[in-house]
Sequence to fold (687 residues):
Amino acid sequence: MAKRMLSEAEGYELFQKYGVPTPAFQIVTGADEAAEAASEIGYPVVMKIISPQIVHKSDAGGVIVGISGAEEAKKAFNGIVASAKEYNPDAEIHGVIVEEMAKPGLELILGGKTDPAFGKVITFGMGGTLVELMKDVTLRILPVHESEIRTMVKEINAYPLISGYRGMKPRDEESLIAIITGVARFFEENPNVMEFDINPLRLYESGACAVDARIIVDDDYRPVGRKQRKLVPPEYFTPRSVAVIGASSDQKKMGYAVLHNLLHFPGQIYPVNNKRTEVQGLKSYPTVTAIPNPVDLAVITVPAVHVPKVMQECGEKGIPLVVVITAGFKETGPEGKVLEDRMLEIARSYNIRIVGPNCLGLIVPPRGLDTTYVHQSPNPGNIAFISQSGAIINTVVDWSLTQDIGFSAVFSVGNQSDLDFLDYLRFVEQDKNTKAVILYVEQLTDGREFMEVVSEVARKKPVVAIKSGSSQKGQQAASSHTGSLSGSYEVYMEAFRRSGVIPVRALRGAFEAAELLAAPSGYLKGRRAIVVTNAGGFAVLSSDYADMYGIQLIDLPDEIMDELNEFLPDYWSHGNPLDLLGDASEKRFEQVFEVLARHSDLWDIAFVVGFPNLVLTSEGLAKQVIKFTEKTPNPVIGTFLGGESMDAGIKLLKEHHIPNFDELEQTFKVVGRVVWQRCRAKSIGLP
Ligand code: ADP
Ligand code: MG
Fold:
């Protein structure tokens, strides 16, 4: 009997200890006793079935409210027991709870669950029977501060029903906060509680009352211990010599592609192949131990069954880091798990660190290192990408080549048998080439440790993350993909926010956000924005999108307005967005940018929205934007709209690391997300 549900009465008693008000109650086992209890408690009363097998009592006809006399109480007792038996003939019936009938109030839900990655999580939201329909809930990973509980209460859509809506009196928010705080403490102090809910908690103008309590305990539950961790020296990822075990000249083999991508590596490359003396024009060795010189990194592509033996040889050779590309380990089932454990054990005995298995390995473009089988190696740049999916790396790298996006490092984490997300995060944290980090996460094992590490990284460099599995289907795909269960999406989102990580939904958005943040101006410091454009239509759309995505278009301060009026034609928009009109020349943009730059303290972000015409080329506009960024510390973000005629300008912006978007809504969406996240991060003490 590992998991069991406590009765409502046990639940009430436990919650009372943590300051949760509940109705007075008695437990009865007969109709006469029910009537006696009811008169002691005082009519009207509520009666409910007590059965460990009946989770939703109303569904079983197990709840009767508004009982107002002895006869009614007796009848209710018999009725409830009969309905419950009919509903589930096997249910053990422990009696009936008779309780004080609480007056109507705003019905809220307080709940808790144990997430596989992040542990205990509390939820709060609109309760009653419509919870599933309304889905108006918010959550926090424990431990949680009272200040966070205050924010949590204000976060639900129905908050006005608490604070007072249209002449309704406000409800007792302070009692609610005290109750949530108590419930969070209850959850933390009782390690065997896996799950609970109070649905509903009735909130009044003064006070509150829990009218249901469900607690699930598991006395055998042991939280997973923290992994022993030994830091990987950063130089492990910048080897001078690389051996490819399983290197091949056969284009159909993995060992071909891997060696092929390493051919442009400036250090030493040693193909290892037990059947050949030459591979792709290079001298090949039968085993790593036969290589006469030191080897810093080995990449293994041989079939899984041979990996333990090869690992042994790597140990004998004294290789510190091994990338295991080969699949067929833990992700395939118990047999694969045994093989993976064996490989790991051998590696440990020689102090070898492992990337993978079941991965693409790593790419460090500034070093010309690529252990993967991507179609074409990516360009060097300043974004680090750490991904739990190899296929996504393949796609993203291919796409990056067409988008002029470069990488400081790309890591494919694979099964994370040894090195995991956190080791790669530690590397990119100190890596001078990395200016922003993108994570693609399917599932984490120790979410708490992840939060600690990633929040330290996010203090130094922007971190953007995509979590797969927001849909039920997605969650299934993710779990079969990695061989372990995925935690729920919302908990991850909350963990990201709490750690200062910017959650995004799409890969494109992730790169746009990362590029924006990798720009020299770094984190956005506020939401006060100015839009400058030569297109009236886009000026209007900019206002719409800014509003939609939480960007504040400021009223132009008098200082700025007066200076602009001195030289702009009378018919300019006289407001923000600054519509400089279709005949705006390079000169006009230059003058406006000069004024804005002089007053950089009055705004946080400038959007330049341009379209091509005969008066202004895209290069001309780009040149002015570049000059503008040299004169202001604030970020300047381009949206160059049009066809091929914009390419030259866009290229110039790229060369100067100025973020540019090719679709206006996307500009505001991405910037809005980043700004919102920064504001929230600040409110929880992040930089
Ligand atoms: P279920 O197991 O179906 O969730 P509940 O104990 O929540 O059963 O009871 C169903 C509904 O009956 C509650 O949502 C609430 O509206 C009402 N109710 C239950 N207990 C009381 C009570 N003591 N006072 C007033 N209403 C109650
Ligand atoms: Mg209920």
User: Anything to note?
Assistant: The chain is about 40% helix and 20% strand.
